[in-house]
Amino acid sequence: MAKSHISMTVNGKKVEELVEPRTLLIHFLREQLQLTGPHIGCETSHCGACTVDLDGKSVKSCTVFAVQANGADIRTIEGMAAADGTLHALQEAFREMHGLQCGFCTPGMITRAYRLLQENKNPTEDEIRVGISGNLCRCTGYQNIVKAIQYAAAKMSGVPFQEAAE
Amino acid sequence: MNDMTPTSAGRAEKLQGMGCKRKRVEDIRFVQGKGNYVDDIKLPGMLYGDFTRSPHAHARVKKIDTTKAAAVPGVVAVITAETLKTVNLAWMPTLAGDVQMVLADGKVLFQNQEVAFVIAEDRYTAADAAELVEVEYEALPCNVDPLKAMSANAPVIREDIKDKKEGAHGPRKHYNHVFNWQAGDKAKADAAFAKADVSIKEMIVYPRVHPCPLETCQCVASFDKIKGELTLWGTFQAPHVIRTVGSLISKIPEHKIHVIAPDIGGGFGNKVGAYPGYICAIVASIVTGRPVKWVEDRIENLSTTAFARDFYMETELAATKDGKVTGLRCYTIADHGAFDACANATKWPAGLFSIISGSYDFPAAHVSVDGVYTNKAPGGVAYRCSFRVTEAAYAIERAMDIMAQKLKMDPAEFRMKNLIRREQFPYTSAFGWVYDSGDYQTAFKKAMETVGYKQLREEQKKRQEAFKRGETRELMGIGVAFFTEIVGAGPSRNCDILGIAMFDSAEIRIHPTGTGICRLGTKSQGQGHETTYAQIIATELGLPADNIMVEEGNTDTAPYGLGTYGSRSTPVSGAATAMACRKIKAKAQMIAAYMLEVHDDDLEWDVDRFRVKGNPERFKTMTELAWAAYHEVPPGMEPGLEAINYYDPPNFTYPFGAYICVMDVDVDTGTSKVRRFYALDDCGTRINPMIIEGQIHGGLTEAFGIAMGQEIHYDEEGNVTTASLMDYFLPTAVETPKWETDWTTTPSPHHPIGAKGVGESPNVGGVPCFSNAVNDAFAFLGSTNIPMPHDNWRTWTAAEKLGLHT
Hints:
The structure holds 2 protein chains of 2 kinds. Chain A has 5 helices and 5 strands, in the order E-E-H-E-E-E-H-H-H-H. By secondary structure, chain A is of the alpha+beta class. Chain B starts with 7 loop residues before the first helix and ends in a 5-residue tail after the last helix.
């Protein structure tokens, strides 16, 4: 199959590659760029394990062709931490609040939460729950994920995190 | 005392041992996307395999033509049953003593059954070519109803064994019969029913569901022809079992098989068994001489690898009119699909289903289970529960509600009256299980007081009256469940898999600088083993948990063990860890005595050191003793500081809990909303309360999914209609209720650290609790048993049947 030439920015770095037109973005990221953080959990866009940030929007990279991302600015979980290795507030928060177990949904979940907090700096619990409803987790029951996002939101706004009373 | 010496409590805290909410070690890599899962593995020259699958539930395979598929550029080989026959692998043994087709041999027996395996240079080409394998089928009548499986004119599912009168578990009474298994005392139970003041009988159905971990089943097989060695990376909850079974099936000597389970994206029972994909990838690697990766997609996962439940339980209780249960009978039809590939301990075809007397003191009980073949996918795994324990808990907890209703008693009061009392432990059930410890009344009272049970019932009564007056269309349900599990399989006298006793193991090496590594036969799939096992060692050996690396999943380096499922890691490998620590500690004590020039009896343990009794200033810390073990051991003593323990538990452990759910149900839309869910768990000694709470949250969410919407459903033609996340309900953050957790602590008397296991409790207790809440909402209108799953449609239908929409 004839290959298409694409270029994009991934985690701040310019990349240029040849891909089959039908190559899905998730396969391009995982197999051509070796960014294996985003995962594949379904093929129907339900689970969100493959979520990446594309031009300021959360997308499920299993239902985007790599060629559609030509010229795009993409951020994956691998691009979350600072250059010196300092974890992003969300990465720290997920660990602090026990917001993950098997870790398979985590990259997509954190990437989605990142965009959610860009759009809404101080979301309510309900807004968080709706905001991550495109990302499934089979392990945590979401409660600690919600807490983690609240923790990160507080940290990013420079206010102390207070756990809501049970 | 020297001011610079921290107190014992201060030193203990720094160790991050048992009881500490230690942050998880594994999270550091997971939050950065640096986990290493099977599909992340990329080997030079690696090929990809994909299946051609049957569109039919039951059909004769007349012809398979692979010409077009093989001609696709990039396709390396196409394997069919005929290929597999040349290496005697067209069929494989199952863990349950049956055999299973690896690829369709003459017939297909369920929809999406594996028919051909295409191996290609990349996954897209493999998928393309799998579509081009041409298969000629002759459709046969099919049966997906287990209750019809043993009728006179039922289609013959298994032609290979249709005339066999004896199966792996005794006599077969019909060509679609797998086994009959019984437990308890039938005569005694029948006598109890003959004398009963009151009895109930209800068909309680636990539908077919699927564990559906977010990562599907997958593997990479790499066969080295020169060395004759196979390396198999895979999503294996039980890597050593896979190695042994792999060796028995493939005839590759076991020492030349290296099984590696890297990070696993959830298991919940789905990743215990051996599947055709693994066999095909292995054969493909042998045939092509290149590594071969096989990755299931979600539809394949939901429709072919390892369903759970599918139990039809006709449950009866007998009681006195003042509410004391005198007998239990349960006759169950178990749908095993086309092959008996149940993942149970081998001698237990219905698992530990005889835990069905639950938390109650029943004088007489009997169960009988008939397994049957149908045109459905094989499996029968324990989806986040010990073998068939959630089925048993569902049946008894539903039946207790139904009996309470008949007796016009409050379901909680009725349970309280029948609970095993604290002074009865160790308690021997009517089925012969010896419950190790419990204090059920204390737990139950705490639960009822915390939620304000009495006030809730008063509120419910007011709501019912308002409903009758037409002032509200919303009913209130209060679900109560008191469950007891049987976990930690298991004692070798009870439990084996293909003859291998179900012990487990831990091997600990303490390095000269006082750090160490612990390797185990279990395998975490998200439970946090790297964190919690180190906490046991921290407390036992007085070394900081941060100084202990925990490693699992590599059969070359880990001691033999039976893996992680059935909540067995803490009860079995957790015990092995403590016992190995105690061997190390005993040796360290001898070294300390030598160094301090005292008798070892004159030493006492203090958090992280041995000190001289009555002279606490004279001590040797474990870190110092580690150095000494490689430097100045007493004469005649072997250097080094390491130990291994293979732990054969003397008994199962019996975690328990009291759950209460408050739900509002709209009779006009069938929608229900969980207002409150309170879960009290008693898992004995608590190793990491943060992780325990996380396990409870996750298990409750799975239970919510099962009770409120999950079903692997087949239509009459055998089409599986719920095989994608479009149709199979996985709760999102929006539907998922908020969880309240609580605990009591009743240590296990036979476990070295008193721990019982916890990960599966919320699934076992949660499902009946949700279901009882929905049923309870309608009970005052005379409804006894609305079947699961309680999705809006079924709840609306129940309301419709009760005439509530007129």
